[in-house]
């Protein structure tokens, strides 16, 4: 008898039929003798609807009050899921994040889990209850409800699996597993049988929406195998684990992120410490910076360009404009009609020429590259947003990723 953690996303609990389908899956594990923890997200578009309700009242509400509001979405889901399991004749209890002992820091709207007190969870599991836990939320040292950011229910599930030393963690979603690209953009994308934590972490960070990147970080840290599978069928999913395969795939996937903006600080004096000055200002505001490009301009000045998420654009511009005289720059410009397209693959490390293939695919498709960023297992380019889907298809075709079968080989 082991412990199984199952997570169901918003589409998987969107209506009565789907809630009962998820409930039966949980019961199926319970009947095998396992202790079962079910983590659920808010139903369907509930979170978006709550955000709209907030805007009707206050265009710029505090993050604390937004957390108070948004956490109610998951509270509805856990109660309905528990009622379904109850209706099917099985013992069950629903718990909010704080009742489940999930303690976070105080970064409202994007909190991190710092500790999980499993005493209540263990007590309920020992009573042979199926425990339904609200994803995406916790409580800070001030006893305030906090939320973990979009996709945070994945993180809740993995954190609970780690704290409870669960035997497996299943992430149920509206897709069959992890694909070589978004099947909505590339209809002939292939499903991977398995993928490494590092590759999945890059894909999640770079815009693939199957898993939340922090959940993959946690899974890697505690070596918890994740299974990503559809809640709508019984197909085998994709296993995310520490892959030690000798024949690593050259490229495992193509990801696209359109929630991005490019900011350029123009005419900065070409002396040491200027980049530190700019990025430390942003770091103090918890603004995450991605691709960075520095170019030498004329008259001993340089331009520094970088990307941030669109949600951080206004705050970035405000901070930099306010400190323009400190930075000593001539101007700050931005573009929010850009997209980042990336390839990820553990096999890229020992294969020179991958970047050239990617750039050739974009050249053949008539797509201009604005910025480039590389690491051992990824290459990202910044392009015009209108070319994003075309770029993903061109790169996917170039690397013949549609020829991968479900074994991921």
Q: What is this structure's SSE topology?
A:
Layout: E1 3-8, H1 16-31, E2 35-40, H2 46-57, H3 63-87, E3 92-95, E4 102-104, E5 113-116, H4 119-126, E6 130-134, E7 137-139, E8 145-147, H5 152-163, E9 168-173, E10 194-196, H6 197-205, H7 213-221, E11 226-230, E12 238-241, E13 253-257, E14 260-269, H8 274-284, E15 292-296, E16 301-309, H9 313-322, H10 324-327, E17 331-335, E18 338-344, H11 354-364, E19 371-374, E20 378-384, H12 388-398
Parallel strand pairs: 1-2, 1-9, 2-6, 3-6, 9-11, 10-12
Antiparallel strand pairs: 4-5, 7-8, 11-12, 13-18, 14-16, 14-17, 15-16, 18-20, 19-20
Helix pairs in contact: 1-3, 2-3, 5-7, 6-7, 11-12
CATH superfamily annotation of the largest domain: Acetylglutamate kinase-like
Give the fraction of residues assigned to helices.
Answer: 25-40%
Mean pLDDT: 92
Shape descriptor reads globular
CATH architecture of the largest domain: 3-Layer(aba) Sandwich
CATH class value of the largest domain: Alpha Beta
What order do the strands of the largest sheet run in, or round the barrel if closed? 3-6-2-1-9-11-12-10
Distance between the termini: 34 Å
Radius of gyration: 23 Å
Class of secondary structure makeup:
alpha/beta
Put simply, the count of helices is: 12
Q: How many strands appear in the DSSP assignment?
A: 20
- Give the tally of structural domains: 3
CATH topology of the largest domain: Carbamate kinase
Beta content: 25-35%
Stretches where pLDDT is under 50 for at least 5 consecutive residues are none
């Amino acid at each position: 008898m082991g412990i199984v953690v199952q997570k169901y996303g918003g589409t998987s609990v969107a209506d009565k039929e789907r809630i009962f389908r998820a409930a039966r899956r949980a019961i199926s594990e319970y009947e095998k003798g396992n202790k079962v923890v079910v983590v659920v997200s808010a139903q369907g578009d509930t979170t978006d609807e709550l955000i709209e309700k907030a805007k009707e009242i206050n265009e710029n509400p505090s993050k604390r009050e937004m957390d108070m509001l948004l956490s109610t979405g998951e509270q509805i889901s856990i109660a309905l899921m528990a009622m379904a399991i109850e209706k099917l004749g099985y013992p069950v209890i629903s718990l909010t994040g704080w009742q489940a002992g999930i303690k976070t820091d105080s970064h409202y709207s994007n909190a991190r889990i710092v500790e999980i007190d499993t005493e209540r969870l263990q007590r309920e599991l020992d009573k042979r209850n199926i425990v339904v836990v609200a994803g995406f939320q916790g409580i800070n040292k001030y006893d305030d409800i906090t939320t973990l950011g979009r996709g945070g229910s994945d993180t809740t599930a993995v954190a609970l699996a780690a704290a409870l030393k669960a035997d497996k963690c299943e992430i149920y979603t509206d897709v069959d597993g992890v694909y070589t690209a978004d099947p909505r953009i590339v209809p002939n994308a292939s499903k991977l049988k398995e993928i490494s934590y590092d590759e999945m972490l890059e894909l999640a960070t770079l815009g693939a929406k199957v898993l939340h990147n922090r959940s993959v970080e946690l899974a890697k840290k505690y070596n918890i195998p994740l299974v990503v599978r559809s809640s709508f069928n019984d197909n085998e999913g994709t296993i995310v684990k520490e892959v030690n395969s000798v024949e690593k795939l050259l490229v495992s996937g193509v990801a696209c992120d359109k929630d991005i903006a490019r900011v350029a600080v123009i005419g900065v004096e070409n002396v040491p410490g200027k980049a530190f000055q700019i990025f430390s200002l942003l770091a103090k505001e918890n603004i995450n910076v991605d691709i960075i490009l520095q170019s030498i301009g004329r008259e001993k000045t340089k331009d520094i360009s970088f990307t941030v998420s669109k949600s951080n654009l206004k705050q970035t511009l405000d901070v930099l404009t306010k400190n323009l005289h400190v930075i000593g720059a001539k101007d700050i410009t931005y573009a929010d009609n850009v997209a980042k397209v990336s390839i990820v693959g553990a096999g890229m490390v020992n294969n020179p020429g991958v970047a050239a293939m990617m750039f050739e695919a974009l050249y053949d498709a008539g797509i201009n590259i604005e910025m480039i960023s590389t690491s051992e297992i990824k290459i990202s380019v910044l392009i015009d947003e209108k070319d994003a889907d075309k770029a993903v298809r061109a790169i996917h075709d170039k690397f013949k990723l549609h020829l991968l079968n479900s074994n991921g080989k």
